[in-house]
Amino acid sequence: MALALALPPPLSQPLKPPRKALSCRCSATSQQHQGVIASSSQLTSLNYRPAVILPGLGNNTSDYDKLKLTLNGYGVPTVVAKVSRIDWLRNAAGLVDPNYWRGTLRPRPVLDWYLKRVDEAVNEAKELAAVSSYALLAHKATVTVIAVPLDGGTLSLIGHSAGGWLARVYMEEFGLSNISLLLTLGTPHLPPPKGSPGVIDQTRGLLNYVEKNCSKAVYTPELRYVCIAGRYIQGARFLDDPNVNPSSAAYVDIGEPDSKVAVVNAASLSTPVSPTFRARFVGQGYKQVCGQADVWGDGVVPEVAAHLEGALNLSFDGVYHSPVGSDDESIPWYGSPAIVEQWIHHLLN
After folding, report:
1. Residue 184: strand pairing partners
2. pTM for the structure as a whole
3. Does a cis peptide bond (omega within 30 degrees of 0) precede residue 149?
4. Which residues contact 62 (CB under 8 A, 6 or more apart)?
5. What's the topology of domain 51-239+274-346?
């Protein structure tokens, strides 16, 4: 179906990068907030807000079963919005909207079906919040879990991929009085730059709408935005010059997020190394999202597009975009247990 409301699908067999220790990079936006993060050993009482997971485009509810179990293991009651893969065909309704063809599509009514599923999940989580939450009371070497009322009934929203910007639409349309945290995982928050050669807005204006009409990201005691990006593979550009021999193109890592394709003399004594086809393929996907191919990303969403000004922005090395096609050892995604361990404290504050 020629419906351009989706990002490029995850690679069926993601490229396995050389194994290295997973690391986290905090952006300059986040530095002012680092003082608010405390370890569990420093906390005497914690209210664990229920969490609602918003599936990404093309995913279904069961893709997040393991993430739900992982969060439950930390004492975070979790609800996943009920979405099936076939549900996403409902987006075809946008094809009959003239705004689709003009590139000025709005989330409603095309995505009302998704927002309704999110609202149902939020109401289910509210019931969990109204009944009880969990508090950890540390006493010497003993940790006791008890149920206590949760004042205010606040929730955490976890948006994966498109679920992140759809969470922003939900908060704008349905209100955010019960939401204290929006944590996004590999979400393409920013619309592609206009006028970039070869770039077509795959959301047909939806991200432009979100950027113009949804509330800006904040990081306050009342409401926190945490945006997490992955650095799984660096994209590369296709060589557009027909006179350039691909064998004479060297991939030059200059130690910055955007490496370049450099043309070297064929008589050079150095041995040129060309970008792989996968890097070029992934780079074309990145280009459709942010206007640039030779950037780092999670295999689907470039790092630069997954961060928001005003949010606490984090990047994790070696993290793949989707639960589909990933595994917890060689190809971890944002919801793999070892990765969750690095961001779970945002749900426990």
Report:
1. 159, 227
2. 0.74
3. no
4. none
5. Rossmann fold (3.40.50)
